[in-house]
């Protein structure tokens, strides 16, 4: 018995499960605020500080102005020479002690079953003095850390230089997800107290790529193929019977 190539294709076909792609609200902070995100602080942590007007006229300590945080501000996070809206934090602690300090932001999202790949641009700006710990940023989904970066010490070159320093990086990772509601969390942490000289941390340009799970051909596909094949089987059986009756 010979099968048509079309029927064979149906019998051995695989299909992709209907996948609900991951959609995030305000992933690049284009709204100019935290719409779609929820801010949180760790125990004893701080996400920001009050604005500081700066002391640029001071010949010894020419501190630049420092904006109030947390806020969405214009900043060149990815280093392409063009500033855009980004989430800005002055992560720290109310007092020295145990714990990571800071906090971050999160939002819920829904997907089908599949693999989610995420990327996030991050940066730190140290205003004037060399800082021993410019903080950390972690990217998490459902409590699983996909990637993290600790900026560590940032040397500004002061007093030989007074322009401060910017350090940039990108977080990226993948995770397998079941269908349902999930949580994306961006943790911005620094285990020290804040001051007019402490660094700011920036996050921007969250990007996502979702790959639905490929599933084997479903039983109903095979059943449908066999139903489509039934008339040909009957015709084949009939033809065989007629040829068998010939003398």
Account of the protein in words:
This protein has 247 residues and is mainly beta. It is built from two helices and 14 strands. It has two domains: 5-12 and 217-245, no CATH class; 18-212, Galactose-binding domain-like (Jelly Rolls, Sandwich), CATH 2.60.120.260. The protein has helices at 5-12, 219-245, and strands spanning 14-16, 38-41, 45-46, 71-75, 84-89, 92-93, 103-111, 114-126, 136-141, 144-150, 165-177, 180-189, 200-212, 214-216. The chain has a five-stranded antiparallel beta sheet with strand order 2-7-12-9-10, with no helix packed on it. Strands 4-5-13-8-11 form a five-stranded antiparallel beta sheet, with no helix packed on it. Strand 9 and strand 10 (144-150) form a beta hairpin. It is elongated. The protein starts with a helix and ends with a helix. The model is unreliable at 1-17 and 217-221 (pLDDT under 50).
């Amino acid at each position: 018995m010979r099968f048509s190539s079309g029927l064979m294709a149906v019998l051995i076909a695989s299909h992709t499960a209907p996948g609900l792609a991951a959609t995030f609200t305000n992933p690049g902070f284009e709204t100019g605020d935290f719409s779609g995100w929820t801010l949180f602080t760790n125990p004893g942590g701080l996400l920001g500080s009050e604005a500081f007007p700066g002391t640029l006229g001071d010949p010894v300590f020419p501190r630049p102005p420092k904006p109030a945080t947390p806020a969405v501000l214009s900043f060149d996070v990815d280093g392409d020479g063009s500033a855009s809206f980004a989430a800005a934090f002055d992560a720290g602690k109310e007092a020295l002690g145990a714990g990571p300090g800071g906090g971050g932001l999160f939002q819920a999202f829904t997907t089908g079953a599949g693999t989610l790949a995420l990327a996030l641009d991050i940066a730190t700006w140290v205003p004037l003095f060399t800082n021993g710990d410019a903080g950390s940023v972690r990217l998490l989904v459902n409590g699983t850390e996909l990637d993290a970066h600790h900026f560590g010490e940032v040397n500004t070159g002061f007093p030989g230089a007074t322009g401060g320093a910017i350090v940039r990086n990108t977080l990226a990772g993948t995770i397998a997800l079941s269908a349902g509601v999930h949580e994306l969390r961006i943790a911005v942490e620094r285990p020290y107290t804040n001051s007019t000289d402490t660094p700011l941390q920036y996050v921007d340009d969250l990007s996502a790529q979702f790959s639905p799970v490929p599933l084997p051909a479903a039983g109903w596909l095979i059943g449908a193929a066999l139903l489509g094949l039934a008339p040909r089987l009957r015709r084949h059986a009939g033809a065989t019977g007629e040829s068998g009756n010939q003398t």
